[in-house]
Amino acid sequence: MFRKLIIILAALAFTLAGCAPAATPTSAPVPTALPAVEVPTEVPTAAPTASPTSAPLTITDGLGRKVTLPAPAQKVVSMAPSNTEILFAISAGPQVVGRDEFSDYPAQAKSLPSVGGSMGQYSNEQIAALKPDLVLAGGINTPEQVKALEDLGLTVFYLGNPSTLEEMYANLETVAKLTGHESDASTLIDSLKARVKAVDDKLAGVTAKPIVFYEIDASDPNKPYTTGPGTFIDLLIARAGGQNLPGLKDPYPQVSLEQIVVANPDIILLGDAQYGTTPEAVAGRPGWATIAAVKNNRVLPFDDNLVSRPGPRLVDGLEALAKAIHPEMYK
Amino acid sequence: MLRIENLSVSYGARRVLHEVSLTVDNGEMLALIGPNGAGKSTLVRAVSGFIPAQGGSARKNGTNLLTASAGERARVVSVVPQVASLPPAFTVWETVLLGRTPYLNFLGQVSSADEDIARQSLQRVDALDLIDRRVGELSGGEQQRVLLARALAQSTPILLLDEPTSHLDLHHQVGLLELVRALAHQDGLAVLVALHDLNLAARYADRIALLVDGEVKAQGSPAEVLRPEVISEAYHLPVQVIPNPLDQSPLVLPDSH
Amino acid sequence: MIARARDASPRRFPMRHRLLPLAWTLTFLGLAILLSIAIGSVFIPPADLWRLLAAGFSGALPEPLATYALIIIGIRLPRTALVALTGAALGASGAAYQGLFRNPLADPYLIGVASGAGLGAVIAMSIQWPYSFWGLMAIPMAAFLAALLTVLIVYSLARVGRAVPTTNLILAGVAFGSFATALTSFLMLRSSGEVRRALGWLLGGASQAGWMPVLGILPYLVIGLSILLLSGHALNLLQFGDEQAHQLGLPVTRAKTIILVAASLATAAAVAFAGIIGFVGLIVPHVMRMWFGGDYRRLLPLSLIGGAAALLVADVLARVVLAPQELPLGIITALAGAPFFLWVLRRSKNQGYW
Description:
In chain B, 32% of the residues lie in helices and 27% in strands. Chain B is α/β, with parallel strands linked by helices.
């Protein structure tokens, strides 16, 4: 009996050692039960300070750590989808050598090797094997993960979650300093600011602020999840000339159908469209037919990634929100 | 000799034993009889220290068993319990060896002397052929003998048995009690047996103590205790006592109406 | 008849075979350790592995050997140590709990240790700790202390006078455990940003890397496991019930308390860094009992070693099955454990090995 077991175990060992685990990334991100949202948390130091951008640079990161690079990083591993988007947006894409499982924008990111990240588990081995000179962690990563990589001798920078657009611009500048793309970032920030101003201008004369219900998850249609104060979505809805449901206190509250019916939103945005929710399905839910948004056919699918990843696409999100909430200004 | 003095035991507010005093001499077999609920089992468990007593003492040569440590007490008193929960996977050998616990270190390391004693105990109860069997496979009678062997392996001067014959057929009842009597008379143990069968008590015990509602109502030889008026009152049942035609010991018979 | 009985009872090892089970299990453990070091989500060719061994892992190594050395020394070695120690703690505690409660369903989490630890961890996660040594220690320490506090509370609830009846312990443990779990779920829903982090911890897996967790749990494991290894005889006696054990001379309440504390200490330490990993503490003692018999003097060390080996194998699977994505350990043990347990059940149906 035991001899059999030893033989099986030895065979297993040789088989596993013999078959190389896939070094190429998997094509589709694994859908998780929880929405892949990023929460703007309160971090000790919001504004990273920097020294003059000559060869060695030292910047304090979102965990209060002083991170030093001898020169701008050339091989970066991104541990969060938002960081990946930032890197590509400031033209540092060619310098990215690895990314987390959920990084899917832009399309080029998908062909980079994955280092894990589903269920909070990253493969430190993969990260080390890529030999990066910078690991860019984000708000969804834990201090323990940062420490583990630090202990391996890697340089890790924790980019704290911004809570305003200005903080997001600051993050763009920080990443630009780390990768040597200050001018690209500068140009990008200018264009982002211009687009935001354009939205502000377009909505300047608007007086009516429609009530917007942003749906994150409605597995139980009587108690869906939405966003509240503390999230970018809440902020951007207000900026886009709308108002969120009244009385919300938590960032991701669960509201009852009655609450929604009483608030009677004019527009419903389906942030869970990526998981298959359609306007028709919403119209079919019992008790939802009386809501103004449903009656007037203003239930719209929405790309949640535009407003939940704290990167430059937040501006895309703002524009999308403005078009959805005030289509009359965009005719 | 076991000297129990003014032993009182209560379960909460309910008094089960009230100032019970008994003695059991070395080499003597005392049968403890009495109706259900009289407190026989309680007495055995109290003397073995498992139940706390509210008053009185149980001494052997001056040592109060009730206040002794578990190890000290286990060297003086061994018990054959009434309904024994036995882990079915243990073998007879392993079970009897555990009787040596009071003499082993806390790791339970067994010496060859311990093994000899265990083997002798099994021989004494005529259960040596069961030595490799698992306890869960044995019959009631066999299990009882194994428990007796374990108690013997404990090598104590005092042996308590709590209704050891209740699950046994006639053959095994007689066998066990003859064995227990031999242990008292030949090995010099002080043996106290709680029994429900009055006639078995009469036949095998040297002395009898009658326990009713937690009190000792009578103590003495079988002829002294097993008298019709005493038994009738204790058991609330009219009885007649006649001499047993085989050995003249008292034979208790329920009276016909 | 007697010959048949001998065959059916696997425990009658003659003297010279006394050490054979230990030898087998240690071999199994050795293989598992080798697997854990040689295999991971990054494939290291056996040839390079030999070269590394030859070079002694030191000196200026050329690429890719230097990276492999980093992976093996920096990641796999400490992780192997942590996982092995965790598995050892769970295996030994599981055996002790099964002996203490005389219940085949007992596992180290029976009296609520896991739920308490989870609650402590989730509470700690809702606070922003500074990025420092103690800040990073906050969550494991909170889990550890909460686990010990749970045992204390459950023990006090279950006590009747001087004795601690096992039924009471189970009832109090289940009650408090349910309460702690409910509170944990509530807290997780309230601070939805930390849900993923809490869930990751609760699902089990080495959350911290490096040697610090190993050093952190080592003193508690040494104390707890040493006591357990010496408690085999007492556990054998307890199999006969409190009354018989008492009559044979065991100070029952003291023995049960000591074993309970030692097992809980080891479990709390294991859970502090590794999260809630189920099934190991339940299944390993059963398997060891089936193969090697129910004598706790042997069962405890074998469950200790077997637990370490089993968890190492599970960890290798966790790293390899969906590479580069690593799965939480708790999921692997549950997925692999359930069918394995059913297989054991089927095999043992005809033998009353319990």
